[in-house]
Specification:
six-stranded parallel β-sheet, 9 helices, alpha/beta, 2 domains
């Protein structure tokens, strides 16, 4: 029997916790190539898709580094202005969403049980907010804090503190669920919250970060740890 955690609120990271970052990025890449390389054959298209995915470093590489590297790799001489490419990422990537199985149902069940819900996510303000709107889940959260909106990024405890402050709960009454062993888990624990590690995505199976209350591989498993 799993130990129940005494909390009033459950906060979530977004990418690779509620949605598949890789799945969403693949869709963005397909749209990107259709726009800028409409005449590609199937083999060349697949190669470029793989290269875009490999070069982005799981989504953690800065756009100002990523796109120049992509241009060099492809020897893309007639590429559009770099600012257009940066904007295309920040405004278009968020339109492609691949929510993980059970994500919406889990959020709704937590609401039904009376928990306050939060989303605390790192990223450019426009991008992360578009993701939440496109996913259609913003209204399920009692608080949403995007690092780009406040200029503080996980694992800095101030972003966790701010999310708890906005809904009026103590940090110790919050369970944080996220995939990143440092940004999410170390950050939440360092802020005095409880934490569950979503063992998924680029950090799956990597033993980084501090000990957590539990490690899960399906987002619905969170329900077994809260009353």
């Amino acid at each position: 029997m799993k130990q129940k955690l005494k909390v009033k609120a459950v906060f979530f990271d977004f990418d690779d916790t509620l949605q598949s970052r890789k799945g969403a990025y693949r869709l963005y890449c397909e749209a990107f190539l259709s726009k800028y390389f409409p005449g590609l054959g199937a083999a060349e298209r697949d190669r470029k898709l793989d290269e875009m995915e490999a070069l982005v470093d799981g989504g953690y590489k800065d756009r100002e580094v990523y796109f120049p590297e992509l241009i060099d790799l492809w020897q893309w001489k007639d590429h559009p202005p770099l600012q257009e490419l940066y904007d295309s990422f920040n405004l278009d990537f968020g339109k492609y969403i691949v929510l993980l199985p059970g994500a919406v149902e889990t959020l709704k069940e937590l609401k039904r049980r009376g928990f306050l819900l939060g989303a605390v996510t790192n990223g450019v303000s426009s991008l992360q907010n578009i993701k939440l709107d496109t996913a259609g889940i913003r209204d399920l959260f009692d608080v949403v804090v995007v690092s780009g909106d406040i200029g503080v990024y996980k694992p800095d405890r101030r972003i966790f503190d701010e999310a708890a402050r906005r809904i009026g709960v103590r940090n110790s009454d919050v369970l944080f669920v996220g995939d990143h062993p440092v940004n999410d888990i170390d950050g939440a624990l360092g802020a005095g919250m409880q934490a569950i590690r979503m063992n998924y995505g680029d950090f799956k199976g990597r033993g980084l970060g501090k000990a957590t209350a539990a490690e899960i591989e399906q987002i619905s498993d969170v329900l077994a740890y809260v009353s």
